[in-house]
Amino acid sequence: QPVLTQPPSVSGAPGQRVTISCTGSNSNIGAGYDVHWYQQLPETAPKLLIYDNSNRPSGVPDRFSGSKSGASASLAFSGLQAEDEADYYCQSYDSSLGGWVFGGGTKLTVL
Amino acid sequence: EVQLVESGGGLVQPGGSLRLSCAGSGFIFSSFTMHWVRQAPGKGLEYVSALSANGGETYYANSVRGRFVVSRDNSNNTLYLQMGSLRAEDMAVYYCARSPSWHSRFDYWGRGALVTVSS
User: Fold this and answer.
1) Going residue by residue through chain A (111 aa), what tens digit of pLDDT does each one get?
2) Contacts of B12 (CB under 8 A, 6+ apart)
3) Is-contact B98 B37, C-beta < 8 A?
């Protein structure tokens, strides 16, 4: 059972706004550790999408955004596009485990 | 251009051993914490192991602690994962990734190496 909880799937039509939640606890996100998000397109390696809760690496479109509040974080897509169809994972550090943890992943389907 | 290239994957029998390598290029390898993350077929990402930039600090997930050993050769820009007592549940694509510091994001990933555990 993943330490960080994500919905297994979300969907939306092109142009819609969609969010993916990531819920942790007082030993990871709630303890103040940063949340990072990764996009995994089919048959490819994960790619960093959002880091330190809300920052975008160079080259990531500004229609992707991240936020964090308390022991939870969210990844938002403003204006879904067909090429956004992928699996998305949140990640943080857990002080109880002394290591890194991932969410179970969310499959985004663009209708 | 930053590149991470895994090698050493393959078919191994249950109880066997295998060593993965991850060659880094395009960056100062000795300045980055390095990680191993795996993904079983059709499953999500599972964190495996970490090794600090100077090799002085390690971390292992409970599922591999005592069976896997992570190491690095900064003179050859290479990260290793020695895997022993392999089980069916260790079958996965193994990715290496780098992070700027111990608690930081994984900003570059390799393409992965497939490890198949089967008799």
Assistant:
1) 889 999 999 999 999 999 999 999 999 999 999 999 999 999 999 999 999 999 999 999 999 999 999 999 999 999 999 999 999 999 999 999 999 999 999 999 999
2) B18, B86, B115, B116, B117
3) no
The two three-digit tokens of residue A76, written as one number = 């938002």
- Among B93, B106, B107, B114, most A C-beta atoms within 10 A, so best to mutate, is B106
Task: Please give the backbone phi and psi of residue B76, each rounded to the nearest 5 degrees, phi first.
Answer: -115, 10
Q: Could you identify the residue written with the tokens 């389907």?
A: A109
Contact, B33 vs B22, CB < 8 A? no
- Residue in A33, A38, A101 closest to B47 by CB: A101
- DSSP class of B102: T
Tell me what pLDDT residue B4 has: 98
Which residues are registered as beta bridge partners of A106?
Answer: A88
Distance CA A3, CA B61 (A): 13
Return the pLDDT at B103.
87
Instruction: Provide the 10 A C-beta neighbour count for residue B52.
Output: 15
